[in-house]
Amino acid sequence: MNYFKKILRFAKPYKKYAVLNIIANIFYALFSALSFIALIPMLDVLFKGKDATKITEPPVYNGIGKAQDYFKDYLSFQVNEYAQDDVSIALILVISLVIVLFFLKNISNYIAMYFITFLRNGTLKDLRNALYKKTIELPLSHYSEKRKGDTIARITSDVLEIQHSFLSILELIVREPLTILFTIGAMLFISPELTVFVFIFIPISGFIISLIGKSLKKKSDKVQQEQGLFLSILEETLGGLKIIKGFNAESIFYTKFKSSTQNFNDFSNKLLNRQNLASPASEFLGISVIAVLLWYGGTMVLVGETLDGPMFIAYMGLAYNVLTPAKGISKAFYNVKKGNAAAERVLEILETENSITDADKAIDKTEFNSELTLENISFKYENEYVLKNFQATVKKGKTVALVGQSGSGKSTIANLVTRFYDITEGEIKIDGINIKDMSQSSLRGLMGLVTQDSILFNDTIKENLKIGKPNATDEELIDSLKIANAYEFVKELPKGLDTNIGDSGGKLSGGQKQRLSIARAVLKNPPIMILDEATSALDTESEQLVQKALENMMKNRTSLVIAHRLSTIKNADTIIVMHQGEIVEQGRHDELIANEGVYKKLVNMQSFE
């Protein structure tokens, strides 16, 4: 139940609905018991008719021991008063009483369900919001180790499982126990002897049901893990469909997916077959007890004559009335077991510690005044260092370029400066302030980012650009597009700024997507610009257009440029040449060419003069 308690904390803001639900359920349980007791005078009239004993004087209460007789005589007196010896009127009266009580019972049930709906859906909404918030707060390193599909499965199917398991209990947690309590009270009122059998039945059935349900959590965990796996395969398939088709690998991925869904099918069958045993098991146990009650109660009516027929029939109705909530509670018990696995997976995300957090008194820095410095920084993703004692200074208004072969650590520096990862050793400072002492939002507010992969979203051009500045005017959007050399193609689109660009900008060319990424960074207008191989994935013509856009953007800005194509950084103020995480050369383009070192070899390899 620990997971249940942790999930229930999301229900706290909706506790008023829980209180109203409890009040409505109290009335439901009360009317549920009374509706069966009201059958007694009806059965009296129905079976005894004119031979029924007439009570013409109000009965006198003679203590708890005679309460049953007093109740019967009082109802008989009231019926006799209104019916005035007319049996048909008496029958209509008692039937009307039964109908009114059943009506009140069902209205109370509807009101209880009405209020619990707000509690359930509100809890689910807050749980999903908390999961999404945690998902975007966790560092990039978290997702380099996890499958995206598994995270998607936790936020979607696992949350739905919680809805069907844990949150369905909220409907039963008050109503069913109260129904059983009021019903047993009425049964004790009619016959304490018969009620002993019911007290024996409940613990026995509970014990048998617990034996059946022990393995449910383990089986459910396997189902949800497998669901996460086939969602991951689906997500990877959609992301890499071009490669899959290009290499005729459809059969390989189909085999993978089919294998995963087969496992999911097998685990689901085992889980559901075990779960489906709950209802028939509890019903069989209930009918067994009803059979014993019929035998024992029938003996009391026919042989011992210690109980009359109408009261016994009403008692049997009450006894059967216990079965439905008892079945509901047993089903809820199964659901808790089954939901534990889903809750564990959801809470694993919510309780994952964020390795990159703001300091207690983090500084909100809004201006960049002098320099960005990287002081003897070293970094490793796992065991081996990918950066060793790296040192550089980027003065305000200057452009520093990082070049080197793939794997030399260039992009890692971009990830460290933006604090997507935290450095292992050393310090990164802006105007002498360690970036760890700054709030992450203010740090990233000082920076604009253009990556090798143009990350765009399935929305309009306008909304993609406004990520850089949510309150931007159309004039500002157009100005940023002009600087990014993108306005010419945008204005030719059918809806201009309001054109939807498709999933990941799929309706645009590579060069167009990259220029929109640059326009987004320009619109943000940050003092520091990070360009991570912004032209490496482009053809020559697109590269020239993007390069012009980059030059426009970098005017009067501090820029840190990670470059694969050396043609893009020949005008940089400082070029740092890296090899296996270390600086091997640095200087201006002409100086490095004159040195005839690593940089010149890289230039010659790209046939750049």
Automatic annotation (TrEMBL):
GO cellular component entries: plasma membrane
Domain called ABC transporter: residue spans: 372-605
InterPro entries to which the protein is assigned, alphabetical: AAA+_ATPase, ABC1_TM_dom, ABC1_TM_sf, ABC_transporter-like_ATP-bd, ABC_transporter-like_CS, P-loop_NTPase, Type_1_exporter
Membrane topology value: Multi-pass membrane protein
Coiled-coil spans in chain: none
Transmembrane segment boundaries: 20-43, 87-104, 172-190, 196-213, 284-303
Keywords annotated in UniProt: ATP-binding, Membrane, Nucleotide-binding, Transmembrane, Transmembrane helix
Pfam families, per the entry: ABC_membrane, ABC_tran
Residues in ABC transmembrane type-1 domain copies: 19-338
Compartment(s) where it occurs, according to its Swiss-Prot or TrEMBL record: Cell membrane
Domain of life, per lineage: Bacteria
Gene3D superfamilies associated with the record: ABC transporter type 1, transmembrane domain (1.20.1560.10), P-loop containing nucleotide triphosphate hydrolases (3.40.50.300)
Gene Ontology MF terms: ABC-type oligopeptide transporter activity; ATP binding; ATP hydrolysis activity
Name of this chain's protein: Lipid A export ATP-type exporter binding/permease components MsbA
Source species: Psychroflexus torquis (strain ATCC 700755 / CIP 106069 / ACAM 623)
